[in-house]
Amino acid sequence: MVPVDYYIILSAILFSIGALGVLIRRNPLIIFMSIELMLNAGNLAFVAFSSVFKSFNGQIFVFFVIAVAAAEVAVGLALIVEIFKSKKNINIDEMNSLKG
Amino acid sequence: MTSELIVFLVLSLVAISSALGMLFSRNAVYSALFLVLNFVTVAVFYLLLGAPFIAMSQITVYAGAIMVLFLFVIMLLGAGSLAPTESLPWQRPLAILLAVILAMESTYLVFARSRSDLVVTAPDAALNSMDSLREMAMTLFNQFLLPFEITSILLLVAMVGAIVLSKPEKGGQR
User: Fold this and answer.
1) Which residues 80-139 in chain B show a CB within 8 A of chain A?
2) How far is CA B106 from CA A39, B71, B103, in A?
3) CA separation for the pair B108, B87 (Å, rounded)
């Protein structure tokens, strides 16, 4: 018997760690990983509530979130590879101009 | 203290420390491996919550496909470890402070609105059987049929986008 609050608090802590990662890291790959971590924290809250309320809708939302995350990673990593090809560097502090 | 609570506490310790390890590793390859550990731990949480299908998709899609893609790109770019550049010296302490505030206020809100009747019970055999999976599939393909089809179009668009982005430019400036 685990109170659902514990799962939601764990989800909130994981989300905060992901947000911290977006703020302090300079490597865009690690920023992407932090975004994945935040999506996972949201998924955990969805599944916890879906389990408590005995409804499948939360799990189906998680299914869609996983699909969207896969699409986002495919396009994002293609963009990072392209930026690396044109700038020879992927430090996000260098990406301050819109011109390629 | 029930055994479920002990399992939950140990697993959440693993999840939080692997997330912190992902955040503070110098090498991006170690970060990716820590994140795989975190995803597998979250998949075990899904099993504890009685969602075996989501747990297996988590392992195959996240820990399997997405992280392998990440590792490919890290090794392709040789971006394992970037030279640390600190253009804004106050950014790191401020970010840590804000993240701690975010975690504390969300924890406080959850406790302030806590309802003691909402507990996660152990998944029984009925919940982990084929019947529950069938019921979930019925929900997905009846009630959520349109979002499902839109997701397939989204995946197609992402695939075309990734191919167009990585296609070598044929002559001319871009």
Assistant:
1) 82, 84-85, 87, 91-92, 95-96, 98-100, 102-103, 106-107, 110-111, 114, 116, 118-123, 135-136, 139
2) 16, 33, 5
3) 34
ipTM of the complex: 0.91
- Lookup: tokens for A1: 């018997």
Phi, psi of B119 (to 5 degrees): -125, 150
The Cα–Cα gap between B135 and B147 comes to 18
Question: What residues contact residue B10 under an 8 Å CB cut-off, 6+ apart?
Answer: none
What predicted TM-score, i.e. pTM, was given to this entire model?
Answer: 0.89
- Reduced to 3 states (helix: H, G, I; strand: E, B; else coil), residue A26 is coil
Contact B15 A90 (CB under 8 A): no
- pLDDT, one tens digit per residue, over B146-172 is 999 999 999 999 999 999 988 877 655
Residues of B with Cβ-Cβ distance to A64 under 8 angstroms: 144, 147, 151
